[in-house]
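User: C-alpha cells for this complex, please. No commentary.
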Amino acid sequence: MSTATGARLVDFDDALTRYEPVIGLETHVELGTASKMFCGCATTFGAEPNTQTCPVCLGLPGSLPVANAAALEATIRIGLALGCRIATWSRFARKNYFYPDIPKGYQISQYDEPLCTAGHLDVEVDGETYRVEIERVHLEEDTGKNLHVGGSTGRIHGAEYSAVDFNRAGIPLVEIVTRPIPGAGAKAPEVARAYVTELREILLALGVSEVRMEQGNLRSDVNTSLAPIGSLEWGTRTETKNVNSLRAVERAVRHEIRRQAGVLDGGGRVLQETRHFHEDTGSTSPGRSKEEATDYRYFPEPDLVPVAPDAEWVEKLAAELPELPAARRARLQEEWGLSATEMAWIANAGAVDLVAGTVAAGASPADARKWWLGELARRANDAGVELAELPVTPRQVAELTALVAAGTVNDQLARQALDGVLAGEGDPARVVEARGLAVMGESDELVAAVEAAIAGAPDVVAKVQGGKVQALGALVGAVMKTTRGKADAATVKRMLEERVLGG
Amino acid sequence: MSTPSPKEAPGRQGSAGLGRQDVAHLAHLARLALTDEELDHFAGQLSAVLDAVAQVGKADVADVPPTTHAVPLTNVARPDVVEPSLPRDVVLAEAPAAEDGRFRVPQILGDEE
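Assistant:
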C-alpha cells in the first residue's frame, strides 16, 4: 500500500492552518428501473454473470438502442428535486474509450446538452448551512464488471487476466456533478459526507434508486485540492474514484487534505490524477494519470434522437414530487416538538424514518426517540451496524413502549424483551410471554418471595422496625433478586411495609 | 471534474490533412499497435476519406440549422418493461475465451471497475 511517494501525512488541523481545501463530488446513481437504459434486459442485482445481456448491451453489430422512458423521467425528477433547470432540448453523446467493460468501444452518455443543469443542495453541518451548487445532472449507461484474476492482491496491478460480466452494462446511471465547493475549511470532509447523505435521502424519497452503497448503486468520485490560504488560485485536484460508503467519503477527503499538505509542505507538486481509496487503511493510492484518458472524442449519438421534455410534462412531474427530506424534517421537528439540535441528532443517526415509523405505530415521539437514540443506538454501535440494519422494526419498538406504558414490563424487562426481539424470537409481546418477563402482580409467587426475604433477614427487619426505614431497601433488593427483576419494585416495597411495619 | 469544455469538442473545420502523429494518437486511443509503414499507409487513406467528406463543407448551409439527425423526431422511448435476454451459452459462444460464465480478456492496464 503506497501512501504517496515518500510524502508524509500532515496533521489535519495543522494542514488547515496553512491550506484552504476545495472539494467537489461526482456521484453516480444506478436507477432502479426494471429494465436497462437502452434495451429490455433485466437489472436484477446478483444474477448469474452474463445472464442479463442481449445484442444491444453487448454492443453487437446492427443492434440499436432505444431510451427507457422511466429512466428519462427519473432523471428529470432528480433534477427537479435539486432545483435544476430542465433542458428543453437534450442529447445523448458517445464517450469513446477502449476498455473491456465497455463492449461498444464507447459509453452512451451526455456531453454538452445534459438533461438538467444549475441546481443546488443545502446541507447542514454542526448547525451551519452550506450551499452545494449542482453543475449538471445527466443520464448515461453503466459499464460491465471486471473481475481481475491472478496476482497477489486481487487488484489490477499484477492481475494476469480479467473476466467480464456484462449484466451491469447498460443499467441506467445518473451522474450528478457539483460545482467546486470552497469555503468549508476544516469542515470540508463533513460537508462532503453531508452532501452525499442528503443526496441519498432525496433519491430514496424520490424512489428512483435503491441507493445501496454497498451494492454500488451509489458511488462518489471525490475531488480535493488545496491552495495556500489567501491564494487567489485553486490548487491541482485529485479525484478519488468510486468511494462507496458515507464514512469513506469523509475519510477520503480528510486523507487527501493531509497527504496533499505533505506534498506541498515538501515543496512538491500535487499531480492531477485519479486515486483509489482503501477502506482498511483510510488512505488513497494513485490510479491512472488523468492526462492519458481525457481524449474521449465525444460526438452526438446518431442512433438516438434528441430528448425534448415537454414543458407541461415537466411541470406535472414537479407538481408530483414527494415531500423532500429537508421539508419533512422541518415538519416532523414541529410535530414532535423537538429543538433543531434534537432533530439533527435523529437525522445524523439515520433514524428519521425509524422514529417516524414508531410514532406512526402508536408510540409517543419522546418514547420513540428515547429507544432509537438510546438503547438501540447503543446496540447498533456495539454490533458495528447502522440503526436501520438492526433486526427490529418500528412497529415492534412501538409495541415495546406500549408494554412499558401499560405497566406490563418495566424498563429493565423491556430491555430483556428487546434482546429477544433482536435474537429473532418474535414480537415484544410474544417475547415477554415466552421468556416470562411480565411484571409480577401480587401473586402467590411474589407473596412467597416477600415472606422468604423477611424470614431470611431478621436483623434487617429489626432495624426497620427500630425506625431505620431505609434498610427496607435491602429486602426489596432481595425480592427483586429472587424474582430476577420481574417484580415491580413499588409493589414489593408496599408489600414489605405491610408485613414488617404492619398495614 | 468531467465537465466538458468547448476545447474538447469534436469537429474539424475545412481541409482535412491527417498527419502520422494524428494517426499514431488515434491508434493509441484504440489500443492498436501500428508499424511505421502502417502509420504512413493509414494516414494517406484516412486523409483521402476526410477530404472526400470535406466536400460537404462546400454546400451553402446558411439557412439550415445544425442538426445531428436527418429525421425530425424527438422523444423516442420505450416503456420500462423487461424482455428476455439471450441464453448465456449463446452470449459466450463467440467469445475468444470464457471462464465461469464470464468473458476472459487479456490483463488490463488501467483502473479497476
